[in-house]
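To the team - adenosine-5'-diphosphate complex, inputs and output below.
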Amino acid sequence: ELLVVGSANVDLVVETQRRPGAGETVLGGDTRVLPGGKGANTAVAAAKLGAGTALYGAVGSDEYGELLLDSLGEAGVDTSLVEMTYRPTGIAYITVTPDGENSILVSPGANNTVEPDRLTDALPGAKVLVASMEIPRATVERAVLDAAAAGVRTILNLSPVARVSGEALAALDILLVNEHEAKWLLDGGDDLTALLSLGPSAAVVTLGARGALVVESTGTTELEALRVEAVDTTGAGDAFAGALAAGLAREVGLVQAAREATWVSAYSVTRAGAQPSYPWATELREWSLL
Ligand code: ADP
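Output:
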């Protein structure tokens, strides 16, 4: 019922005292290998909440591709629409310094081979489509247009932020961005209601520890974040996207789905990593949520 169109990457994370400059070699800590990528993260978040979820994407036929398929499978994501391609699995090379700052170099690899041609087979049966960037922009635009034409509810997590066609934005139900992405889309402006003039029926803006805003033509709803001790915010936005989509697939209203997404993403920041930090539905119930 939920179709996620997006990337799958392995995150290679190394801690270092300082970042190497040009021509320099620095010794860091041991490499941690973690499943990631915005599409895969979103799909895992939704599936762990119990939504019937498929990922539309691509990995390479290599050991990182296997790792991603395993992680998706363990969360209950249908991987039959994840193609195995001749290009290597996407990799994010991440260095983390003691101040907690990240520097990230992404090698998209197989993600650049995700074409829209298989969507015709994938869309029937879907209730909600959620797309994110890190795959070719034309594929994302086609996915939104085809889904809208098929009567499927559409969410675009426009991250990493980029210009997409006005046609796709006009066909979109929900534009999901964080506040930095919103600012970029508004050319530095901070009137978030102006996001609606880009075309979507509604916009949801995440505000980190301050929660989220739901912007609709009838008005804006503020949602406070849960107060938690943040350990690692990696993948919080993707957790939000997955939970928002899972809520809409259950046919709860947009504001309620966004509220649930603030719970799920708050939970995710209390634990390390992206996919492993996402709660199963039972864990949320232990927090007396959902
Ligand atoms: P991104 O990860 O895309 O930058 P945000 O930083 O806005 O996105 O985080 C997404 C969501 O995660 C927020 O809307 C909020 O619900 C939750 N979140 C992030 N950081 C915290 C935090 N420190 N405490 C509670 N919730 C948080």
